[in-house]
Amino acid sequence: MQPSLKGRREGSPWVGLWAVFFKEMADHLSSTRMRILEVLILFSAVGAVYAGAQTLRQTVSEDPFLLLRVFTAAQDPLPSFVAFLSFFLPLAAIALGFDAINGEYNRNTLSRVLAQPIYRDALLWGKFLAGLATLALILLALFLLVVGLSLIFLGVPPDGEEVGRALLFLLATLAYAGVWLGIALVCSVLFRSAATSALAAIAVWLFFALFWGIIAQLLAQAMAPYDPFDPESELRQAEALLAFSRVSPNTLYAEAIQALLNPGVRSLGPVLISQLQGALLGSPLPLGQSLLLAWPQLTGLIALTLLLFALAYVLFQRREVRA
Amino acid sequence: MVIETQGLTKRYGKVVAVEGLNLAVEAGEVYGLLGPNGSGKTTTILMLLGLTEPTAGTVRVLGFDPVREPLSLKKQVGYLPDSVGFYGEMTAWENLAYIARLNGLPKAEAEVRMRQVLERMGLAEVADRPVGAFSRGMRQRLGLAEVLLKEPKVVILDEPTLGLDPEAAQEFLGMIRGLKAEGITVLLSSHLLHQVQAICDRVGLFHRGKLVLEGRVEELAQRVLGGAYRIRVGASPLEGLSERLGALPGVARVQLEGTELRLEATQDVRPQVARAVLEAGASLNSLVLEQPSLDEVYARYFQEVRHAA
Ligand SMILES: Nc1ncnc2c1ncn2[C@@H]1O[C@H](COP(=O)(O)OP(=O)(O)O)[C@@H](O)[C@H]1O
Ligand SMILES: [Mg+2]
Questions:
Q1: Which of A41, A224, B51, B281 has the most Cβ atoms closer than 10 angstroms to its Cβ?
Q2: Closest by alpha carbon to B33, among B171, B205, B186, B168?
Q3: How far is CA B81 from CA A268, B75, B137, B297, in A?
């Protein structure tokens, strides 16, 4: 049990936060994991630009959102950059977080660190923020690489709105990565063995990547059965399916970047013809409108991240310091 | 009082780890928290530091409540855990630098202190080597270096000699004794009673979470062993010597142990013993005054408790 759960305690919970942050950050940046991630970054950036260039050569280069096309264009056998990111980032986040707390136990360093004048809060926040900052750094490197390469190979400078969309896309991606960092952090508190923790986090990832779609379908069918004589039942089922699939951070992320990267998207989820009245089909939405569209998904991702952190926090506060 | 607890109790579910502990350690003392494994020493230490919350009772260390004022307390109290670990891929210097930053030491001052403590612990040459390659003894010394980094008023050491070879253990105990000379109050725990008894001013003996005996080593020996003086006599032939020596004034008990006799006496009766052996016509091979061993005190105490029950 940790003192903080009872009564008032002296001083700030943030004392020592930056010491932890910089130590963890240095650890991440010098680790072998980071070298592997860097190689992956380089490959994916080159792949994205290559795929983008191929696609663009095939289409007429009248597209006003060239940079965004580079992000989303897939070229067999290469997945699109975005698809690659949504696959790669959870794994990177898990790689950075799965041994955050149990690593301290296993190295017998936790009691020594907590015997210093800091609270556990500082340790957990420091580790979380260092992971997030490392992910942000990875993302930024990727982003600059892709933009730079597409400038060289495609020769079209992105305009202001495109850059704005791309940066918002980065933010959404960071929030998505934050969710997986949170999951990894919870696992690192729950499981004493680092291997078990990594496996558990990857299991969660697999669950959402492969199985949640099917489960959401089954749940939706059970909750809102399709009735051939009731035309509205189909819509209800579609809505139920959407609600269930939005439990998954993958869905939230996919929807958010769909809205942000594709200015033509006007709605996320099932659309009724009546809702489209007065809308100019195919005409791009302004950035502000797209952001508004992605807003619930964005806040959802951030809220999920905070929730997971809070869970890790509560679990960690209750942990005994000795193994 | 530097360390004071009242009715300190810790339960883990049904397991009572520490029960009704009243501890009082004075400034400048070396206090030994001794007892077998699982008797509650580590739990007590964790409660003193606020690393685990007591189920009942109060703790004051340097006047601070570890539950309410952990930061002020931990600024002045150094702690060396029983299985001390470091970040293996970082050097000794980097490990210390991290702890210095966690303590909020300004960089310049931290570097001066780090150099000092590494020098003092004999680790100056290996400061730039990764700790992963350090021996157990070096890690233990690095742990003590880290403890001294914050210039503590109180140092708490959990099983400081665990895993050290006898020579390294004695050296390390010497370093601990050196802390007393600087006016640092030391609380150490150990299950190796005989090993640490020499450096403790006072000891508290734990049994199943309770402090059963407390005092200076000689006092305890006197109280529990009856005779504080234990004398080993090697003589031949041994026949009839037992009775003769047992009759000497001041001798409480005589026991045959192998080829030697073991005497317990209330005073140093070696001259009388020597005379008695020679008068009996036997030859005296050896005559040794043994230091009372805490292990024996402990064992005897429970023998008596069991007899009384
Ligand atoms: N986290 C825990 N959960 C349950 N029991 C524990 C826990 N930690 C310690 N104990 C029990 O508390 C008792 C005292 O342990 P400890 O303080 O480690 O003894 P010592 O340090 O003297 O060897 C032991 O019986 C141990 O099993
Ligand atoms: Mg112990």
A1: B51
A2: B205
A3: 56, 16, 14, 27
Short-list A158, A89, A10, CA closest to B67:
A10
- Rounded to two decimals, the ipTM of the complex is 0.86
Site of tokens 């979470």: B209
DSSP assigned state of B36 = S
- Record: contact B143-A8, CB cut-off 8 A: no
Nearest bound ligand to CA B39?
1
Strands of the sheet containing B56-61, edge to edge, are: B15-25, B3-12, B56-61
Mutate to test the interface with B, among A22, A99, A111, A127 (most CBs of B within 10 A): A111
- What are chain B's domains? 3-215 (3.40.50.300), 229-291 (3.30.70.100)
pLDDT of residue B153: 96
Element (H, E) at B206: strand B202-207
- Say which residue, B283 or A277, is predicted with more confidence: B283
Q: Is the pLDDT of residue A323 over 60?
A: yes
CB neighbour list of residue B268: distance below 8 Å, 6 or more residues apart: B229, B231, B289
Whether residue B101 lies within 8 A of chain A, CB to CB, comes out as yes
Please state the length of chain A: 323
Give me ligand 2 centre to Cα B49, in Å.
Answer: 14
> Nearest by CB to B85, which of A8, A9, A108?
A108
Q: In the predicted model, is pLDDT for residue A299 greater than 90?
A: yes
Q: Is B160 in the pocket of ligand 1 (CB under 6 A)?
A: no
